[in-house]
Design a protein that fits this description.
single chain; 26% strand; alpha+beta
Length: 198
């Protein structure tokens, strides 16, 4: 599902995506479940390239410029849609996306992607098959999670929780690797419990 467009970046791997609102896309507007914490998304690169960034949604920001503005209104919000259809709605939902790799015609690359997304690039949720293909190691049926050190180096307290969410999802997609994922899950669970305590 198309969830939004890139509006800025904080670093080479950290993007801000504005979620589509009602009437901005022909399809139904995305629901909060479509851009939930830990959702894998693909961010299209240049139109001529058949490659995309793979990212994870790790944060949500609600923008409401009207908060704290207690002054009188000339028109109530319901009347603005009728009398001022060109009125810009300034409220927005933004999500943070951290890029964890790139898919190119020759295969996949996990870690810091070589290319960056452009402003206006569309973010689309990835299917289970796309997530499975991105994590399948090159020799065949193995499981690769080479971007985990990149995420842990970010220093954000939500990252261990993000990785736990990813590991739980990968457990459903790679049932043959349950033992390896259980070890990683235990390590991350310990880190989420101990790191905040100092």
């Amino acid at each position: 599902m198309r969830i939004g467009k890139i509006v800025k970046s904080n670093t080479h791997v950290d993007y801000v995506c504005q979620i589509y609102g009602p009437g901005e896309v022909a399809d139904p507007a995305p629901s909060p479940e479509d851009y939930a914490f830990g959702t894998f998304v693909r961010v299209e690169l240049s139109a001529g390239l058949s490659s995309y960034l793979v990212g994870l949604i790790y944060s949500t920001i609600l923008m409401n410029p009207e908060f704290g503005n207690l002054g009188p209104r000339l028109s109530p919000p319901a009347d603005l849609e009728v009398f001022s259809p060109d009125y810009l709605r300034e409220q927005a939902t933004l999500v943070g996306i951290v890029a964890v790799g790139q898919v190119v015609p020759g295969g996949t690359h996990q870690g810091v992607p070589r290319l960056a997304a452009a402003v206006g690039a569309e973010a689309v949720t990835m299917s289970a098959d796309e997530v499975r293909d991105f994590h399948a190691s090159q020799p065949g049926d193995g499981l690769a999670l080479a971007y985990a050190p990149l995420l842990l180096a970010q220093g954000d307290p939500l990252i261990p929780h993000l990785l736990l969410t990813v590991v739980n999802r990968l457990g459903d997609l790679f049932p043959d690797h349950a033992r390896q994922l259980a070890v990683l899950r235990g390590n991350l669970a310990w880190k989420t419990a101990v790191t905040p305590a100092g």
